[in-house]
Amino acid sequence: MENVLRPLIVVGGAVVLTLLIGWATDLLLRKADARHSETPLWGLLRRGRVPYQLVLCAALLRGSYDQAELILEHRVAVGQVLTLVLIGSAAWLVVRIAGAVVESTYTRYARAHHDAARVRRVRTQVSLIMRVVTAIVGVMAVAAMLLTFPAMRAAGASLLASAGILGIVAGVAAQSTLANLFAGLQIAFGDMVRLGDTVVVDGEWGTVEEITLTFLTVRTWDERRITMPVSYFTSKPFENWSRGTPQMTGTVFWHLDHSAPIEPMREKLRDILRECPAWDGRDHGLVVTDSTPNTIQVRALVTAKDADDVWKVRVTVREQMITWLNAEHPYALPRVNTADAVLPPGGIVSAQDGAAAAANRRLHEPPRTGRG
Length: 372
Fold this sequence. Notes:
Strand content: 15-25%
Structural class: alpha+beta
Distance between the termini: 151 Å
Radius of gyration: 38 Å
Number of strands: 8
Shape: elongated
Helix content: 55-70%
Number of helices: 13
Largest sheet: 5 strands, antiparallel
Order of helices and strands: HHHHHHHHHEEEEHEEHEEHH
């Protein structure tokens, strides 16, 4: 009976004690979250209750397993497994706690600051910091797990002796990876590009959707994803429309006839913009920027609060102005002139033009019926 009760008491007691401590901790976190609603830290810490309970259970079992006298022939193997579970769950708990602290800090910063550009910069830095913390904790956990094996401890001296050579070889082999890693840190803390920024890369414009330590993803206007190494943004020029202020100025061009009514077009532009909710009211204008023998180039200037709105204003102005010209001033639209050429004043023409005119008159004269 003792051989049955002892394992049940030890294992069952560890599990029950883990559940009780976990429940009590979660209850305290819920009360703290309700009492301090201005910070989400306590609510975010509740995400770590699963690794927290794993740490408690593994620690209790690891410390009391010898008293259970269960599976004595595999005592070393079971102790090794419990140690590995304890290390892994502890690393998991550290990552959850760090994530809760970082996310809580970012949330409080976003509430206190209304500058969207600064908030996006902090969000980019927070995201990359969490990835660095996760990578460091993961590497340390794996190293701690490996050192629990006697064979790995014995090989530690030889590994340290060859660390210099291995570091050189790894640095040469992973040159591009290390370049991207340092480029990611440079982007995070150099404020070059942030999550949510509108950028133009390789002729494609879109929004920065994800930044990691090695690559960056841009979501284009047609919902495609362009993935490129972060080193691209530290070695090549690119457009960042969200840098500084997101406000933008857009242009709309028309090629019209020389008789186009410029002043009525200016008035119509003002009417269109007043009815367009995407226009921010900062500026507008309409001027003739170029002329050719057949057409003139008219440019309208409009403003908006960001890249998306300036696109909406441009297409609205272009469509409604063309519709208005077609309905009210159709003569202003480009056309091919097919009328007879107007002779210059004074009747001065060249010999070739005179001969052509005479031939044209003879062609249209009625036939003669008599002599003379």
